[in-house]
Write a structure and sequence with these properties.
The protein is mainly alpha-helical and 503 residues long. It is built from 22 helices and two strands. α10 crosses α20.
């Protein structure tokens, strides 16, 4: 039965109209994902009305193209100008931008593209093989205790992303991030916190304008003060072409690629998590197991591989509960859910029973879209690298203009612009005084989810913390937290004792 569906799907997809639609979706996704403030979710939402006049298959594969390409494209601006196009590409900027300053922008762009495509293809395999309802129901086992331990695992990354800064500065940065994350109406009690009489703060501080400020605006302010070029006008010849990195270089890290992709798929299948959690966990795991952890944050291809393969692993993983249970894994997947219903398709077990051929055709389209993204992404990154040749006197104002437009676009009011500029000033002061912005971003993204799931768990247990130690999945994450936190300390202590003995 499965082979019949696959063969029929191939026949339907390889038509001029459907190949064109998938390509258009990828182009839109590349543009939207690379523009600061224009999120993947926004791109999918804007394209959704254009699917009304299409048949079910054509409409869904168009949205899939936007989703997959938009998830990758955030890496382009993250690498070139330290401006993550999406929150999940924050970790890509940590190593991609230093590589740009080292004249290796084209290599970083190419390794990001390859990793994204492989991560997407691996997630497509899981989507096809593990989408049956009985497998997807595992996602329903995640209640507040499981969500708390999972997101808390993401927070433990803070201790290892301070770069060359003293750990205390990283912890101070994270503490302020948690403070900023608590601004707005408390979702549990409904009480306004830290709004200082300004009603627009009741909605909280949106993470995308905050990232734009902390990374892009702060970096521009900082480099203008130093009067130093951060964008390379006369790049070495080997950086002008992407030929310095090949598939062979990528597959030297095949285990990291597979592991990070699976992390993305697993986190994506859990409703309400998102790509940011996956990228933080995958990045930290890559650094923990790397033979050269000292390069992370200074220009490591391993960091980019982990970040991008986990980001695109999210795409297929998030669609597993969407198609089988009607529970979207991400906000973009929620729009997919609406698209299915608009086209008369009801997610659940009956979708595979009565519309199996259509769904498996979409799954095959998922693979084809990633292949199309490989070719179009290659040309997009080759064109984008020309940004580095623009004189700073022109590029700085253009970047600031895009940052302001992006801050406005995500919220639709000047509040987003204000948040971007506010965090731009904070980020500038942090850079000037040696405080890393990465821990603050992690705390901003994960803080609300950690607090919400913790309080929900304690409400369920009437304040009894044993709820975290009596549920198997929660216990598993606690064990991982302990191992990833304690083992490096023990290993470092043994190494220190070894050198003391040698002396």
């Amino acid at each position: 039965m499965l082979m019949e569906y696959l063969l029929a799907g191939l026949g339907q997809l390889f038509t001029f109209e459907n190949i064109l639609l998938m390509s258009i979706g990828v182009v839109i996704g590349l543009f939207v994902g690379a523009m600061p403030g224009l999120t993947v979710t926004l791109g999918v939402a804007l394209v959704l009305p254009f699917t009304f006049g299409l048949d079910s298959l054509s409409g869904i594969i168009l949205l899939t193209g936007v989703y997959c390409a938009g998830t990758y494209a955030g890496a382009i601006t993250a690498i070139l100008i330290n401006t993550p196009g999406t929150p999940s590409s924050v970790t890509t900027a940590w190593d991609g931008y230093p590589l740009t300053n080292q004249g290796q922008a084209s290599g970083a762009l190419r390794i990001a593209l390859y990793s994204s495509v492989i991560g997407g293809l691996i997630s497509g395999i899981f989507l096809m093989l593990f989408a049956p309802p009985q497998i997807a129901k595992i996602a329903l086992q995640f209640g507040p205790p499981e969500m708390f331990t999972l997101t808390f695992l993401g927070l433990t990354v803070i201790a290892r992303v301070s770069g060359t800064s003293p750990p205390i500065k990283g912890l101070i940065s994270a503490a302020f991030g948690l403070l900023f994350a608590s601004v707005g109406i408390d979702l549990v009690s409904g009480v306004s916190r830290f709004n200082f009489g300004m009603n627009f703060l009741n909605a909280g501080l949106n993470i995308i304008p905050a990232c734009i400020g902390l990374f892009a605006i702060a970096e521009v302010f900082y480099q203008i003060e130093r009067r130093r070029k951060i964008f390379i006008q006369d790049m070495p010849d080997h950086s002008d072409t992407p030929s310095n990195v090949s598939w062979k270089d990528l597959f030297k890290h095949k285990l990291l690629l597979l592991k990070s992709s699976i992390i993305g798929v697993g986190v994506g299948a859990i409703p309400g998590t998102g790509g940011s959690v996956a990228s933080f966990i995958a990045y930290d795991e890559a650094k923990r197991t790397s033979k050269k952890p000292e390069l992370f944050g200074k220009g490591s291809y391993e960091g980019i591989i982990a970040s991008e393969s986990s980001n695109n692993g999210i795409t297929g993983g998030s669609l597993i509960p969407t198609f089988t249970l009607g529970i979207p894994g991400t906000s973009s997947a929620a729009i997919f859910l609406g698209a299915l219903m608009i086209h008369g398709l009801t997610p659940g077990p009956d979708l595979f029973r009565f519309q199996g051929e259509l769904i498996y055709t979409v799954f095959i389209g998922f693979f084809i879209i990633n292949i199309i993204m490989l070719f179009l992404g290659f040309f997009a990154s080759k064109w984008a690298i020309n940004i580095l040749k623009i004189p700073n006197s022109i590029l700085y104002p253009v970047i600031l203009a895009f940052c302001i437009i992006g801050g406005y676009a995500i919220i639709g009011t000047l509040t987003g612009v204000g948040v971007s500029l506010f965090f731009g000033v904070i980020g500038y002061l942090m850079l000037k005084n040696g405080y890393p912005p990465a821990p603050m971003v992690i705390a901003l993204i994960l803080g609300p989810k950690v607090e919400e799931s913790l309080r929900q768990s304690l409400i369920l247990s009437s304040g009894d913390i044993s709820i975290f130690f009596t549920r198997p999945i929660s216990v598993l994450f606690i064990i991982i937290v302990v191992l990833t936190t304690v083992l490096p300390l023990i290993r470092g202590k043994k190494l220190l004792n070894f050198f003391r003995k040698r002396k």
